Amino acid sequence: MLRLWGRKSSINVQKVLWCLAELGLEEGKDFERIDAGLHFGVNRTPEFLKLNPNGLVPTLEDGDIVLWESNTIMRYLIRQHDKNGRFPSDITSQYGSEKWLDWQVGSLWPALRTPFLGLTRVPENERNYQAIKKGYEDANNLLSLLDTTLANQAYCSGQRFNIGDIALGLCVGRWILLNETFPDKTGPRPNLKNVDAWLKRLEAETDFNNIAEKQLNIIK
User: Fold this and answer.
1) Which of 18, 54, 74, 103 is the most exposed place for a label (fewest CB within 10 A)?
2) Which domain does 122 fall in, by range?
3) What CATH number is attached to the domain comprising 68?
4) Per residue of the chain (220 residues), what is the pLDDT tens digit?
């Protein structure tokens, strides 16, 4: 049985949980999940650090294979466990998705991470509201690039849902939640009609709604 270490509130754990759900794998039946990180602790124990020296979540065990980095875990899962062709396997779709996975972790999340952590993890009297607003504005600009791409295709890598959409969808979900919860701190959120239509497709055609319920619990 697969074993996944990580709390459900983590964006990176949510990526893996969403991917597993799309593959038809159920917690408790097809994989075990162990809470780790933040108030759960565990991630600094010798047992965990032996698996993942970074001390971060998620970490995946599949027999003798141990993986960390959420996007890598998703890549592995679809190669090893996609028996029914849920995700496209042609090279155009694969690398169309790969570029967005790299963009999410290298460009979009670094911009969005500042307002996300600043507004949900940092005590109010220690918040840098100038940096929070700047990060949110940067995320607005970056997501306008995704909006342009989605004007001509249904999903990030073409006409079929792919793992790149998982990584992007979770970021966009947080982007929306931050603005809805702290509108005076983030500044305005632009109207990106193609991103909105894409989110509706995620809601209708994927396990996004189940994951979105978990996202609602991340902002206290």
Assistant:
1) 54
2) 91-215
3) 3.40.30.10
4) 999 999 999 999 999 999 999 999 999 999 999 999 988 999 999 999 999 999 999 999 999 999 999 999 999 999 999 999 999 999 999 999 999 999 999 999 999 999 999 999 999 999 999 999 999 999 999 999 999 999 999 999 999 999 999 999 999 999 999 999 999 999 999 999 999 999 999 999 999 998 877 766 665 4
